[in-house]
Amino acid sequence: MGELIILRHGETEWSRDLRHTGRTDIPLTARGEEQARALVPALSELRPVRVVASPAERARRTAVLAGLTVEQTDPDLWEWDYGGYEGITSTTIRETRPGWYLWDDGVIPGDSAHPGETVGQVGKRADDVLGRVRPLLAEGDVVLVAHGHVLRVLTARWLGLDPAEGRLFALATGTVSTLGAEHGRPVITSWNVPPK
User: Fold this and answer.
1) Active-site residue, 45 included
2) Which of 9, 20, 147, 149 is catalytic?
3) Segment 142-153, tens digit of pLDDT
4) Which helix (H) or strand (E) holds 144?
5) Residue 79 bears catalytic tag
6) Cα–Cα separations (whole angstroms), residue 22 to 47, 48, 138, 142
7) Alpha carbon distance 162, 156 (integer Å)
8) Using CB atoms within 10 A of its CB, is residue 182 exposed (0-12), middle (13-18) or buried (19+)?
9) CB–CB of 144/52 below 8 Å?
10) Confidence band of 168 (pLDDT split at 50, 70, 90)
11) For the chain, N or C: smaller number of CB within 10 Å?
């Protein structure tokens, strides 16, 4: 049985500045491109049966720079739709909503391009992704290249946890994590590993 290898895309201007970046397609910074290239040694011996990326350019570009060939994009791997909080930092949000915390309080509706999602809706998308990739693991490793919050929710769902438990799994840009099994039960086999 293969492992599910998850890569968070490299740094973007908005991720560097802690701005919520859901559906806005922000390119990688020069540092983000360096982070992606630095993943090559860790991934060079990998022979995945499938590489699936978010449709976002930052995810697809990370995969290419990391030496992977993206065989398919999956819209369910888009980042959490932050609605009216798109492009805004948590600090700014807390100026009008003291104590606001994404995992507990969610987002407000935005415009038609950013209507917003609940954590449960993100969890449903993660479940759909897992439903499609789990059968492939019988053949070998599968790589998913996507975004911080959606991958955290996906990890929670892999472990059978509520989607909001994704809050427990901090995930930096340009890192590799692996999800596998021990004694037939889902586990995290590595987490948030930066390039060497």
Assistant:
1) no
2) 9
3) 999 999 999 999
4) strand 142-146
5) yes
6) 30, 27, 32, 24
7) 6
8) exposed
9) yes
10) very high
11) C
Mind listing the pLDDT tens digit for each residue in 107-146?
A: 999 999 999 999 999 999 999 999 999 999 999 999 999 9
User: Count of residues for the chain?
Assistant: 196
Q: SS3 for 6-27, per residue?
A: EEECCCEHHHHCCECCCCCCCC
What stretch of H or E contains 124? helix 119-133
Q: Which of 3, 11, 20, 79 is catalytic?
A: 79
Structure tokens at 85: 């909080």
Q: Which of 154, 150, 145, 169 is nearest to 48 (CA)?
A: 145
Question: Two tokens at 93?
Answer: 């949000």
Answer whether 0.85 is exceeded by the pTM: yes
Amino acid at 59: A
- Structure tokens, 196: 């060497």
| Helix 30-38 × helix 57-65 angle, to 10° | 50
